[in-house]
Design a protein that fits this description.
With 297 residues, the chain is α+β, with helices and mostly antiparallel strands. It has one domain: LCP protein (Aminopeptidase, 3-Layer(aba) Sandwich), CATH 3.40.630.190. 28% of the residues lie in helices and 20% in strands. It has seven helices and 14 strands.
């Protein structure tokens, strides 16, 4: 994949706001058993790039992962928040092979983050998926500490694991030890769940677990007792995030995305099978749909 347009990505996210003026006295009252809207929804669908960093914190000198070095994006997802339709989520494989202008070799899509941050990642994803000019309008970089904070703030996530997950990496001094069965996981345990990767399933298996975690987060966030606390939770999270979303915009997207009666629609970019077992870089399947992510599901 060539990324000829990446010289322009520095302006990603610098667009006029598409939200009506906010009511500063946001209501948290429950009506008919449901939480009242936190903010006015946007006037049209908004696309947000979620970048999961493999560093513990934004300012961390090392990613604390293997291989060690500057932070990469080990999760990439596009979210389309439509005030008139279901929340749509596209999982983008970080192992996709890309080649930057002027370079002779390809590299994984996830490695672009350490070279050019959210702007370079957003530009690459936009060209890869075929987004309209100006998209994604917003981005959120989520380091591991922010994930733990979010999950713990919700009181954990109820997860039913079909088998135990165990892994130990002495070079990172990091271990994963999760039991099978129905249980409520704390933030550090959910981090283990989304980081776990085995040889049989590889990145595909990890993306599947990440999708399950997203679904569980959505189900927790739409609960009326959780809804009222979202403004405070967002304020606590912002110090751990890198984002061009204001609090008003974030609450607006939450209102539009989570209060839909239709279920969240998940999709992912299909890949060609690996040519050999140890192949780390992948290509988009020749049978992939066009466009990769239709505006209407």
């Amino acid at each position: 994949m060539g990324l000829g347009a990446l010289g322009l990505v520095a302006s990603v996210g610098l667009i006029d706001r598409l939200w009506p003026p906010q009511d500063q006295g946001l209501s948290n009252e429950e009506q008919n058993g449901e939480a009242a809207p936190l903010a006015s929804p946007p006037s049209r669908p908004i696309t947000v790039l979620l970048i999961g960093s493999d560093a513990d914190r934004l300012a961390a000198a090392s990613n604390g992962a293997a291989p060690a070095g500057a932070a990469n994006s080990d999760t990439l997802m596009l979210l389309r928040v439509d005030p008139a339709g279901p929340l749509q989520i596209l999982a983008i494989p970080t192992e996709l092979a890309v080649k930057l202008p002027g370079q002779k070799t390809v590299q994984p899509l996830g490695s672009l983050y350490k070279q050019g941050g959210a702007a370079l990642s957003a530009g690459a994803v936009a060209e890869l998926v075929g987004l309209d000019p100006g998209q994604p309008e917003r981005y959120v970089v989520l380091p591991r500490s922010a994930l733990r904070e979010l999950v713990d703030g919700l009181g954990g996530l109820e997860v039913n694991l079909d088998q135990p997950l165990s892994y130990r990496d002495k070079s990172q001094a990091y271990s994963i030890d999760l039991q099978g069965g129905l249980q409520r996981l704390k933030g550090a345990q959910v981090e283990q769940l989304v980081r776990y990767r085995n040889k049989e399933q590889g990145e595909a298996g990890r993306r599947e677990r990440q999708q399950k975690v997203i679904a569980l987060l959505v189900s927790e966030l739409i609960r009326p007792d959780q809804w009222a606390q979202l403004p405070e939770r967002w304020q606590r999270l912002t110090s751990q995030l890198d984002t061009n979303l204001s609090q008003g915009e974030a609450l607006s997207l939450v209102t539009a995305g989570l209060r839909q009666e239709k279920p969240v629609r998940y999709s992912q970019i299909p890949l060609e099978p690996p040519a050999k077992p140890d192949q780390t870089l992948r290509q988009i399947s020749a049978k992939a749909p066009t466009p990769l992510w239709p505006a209407k599901p």
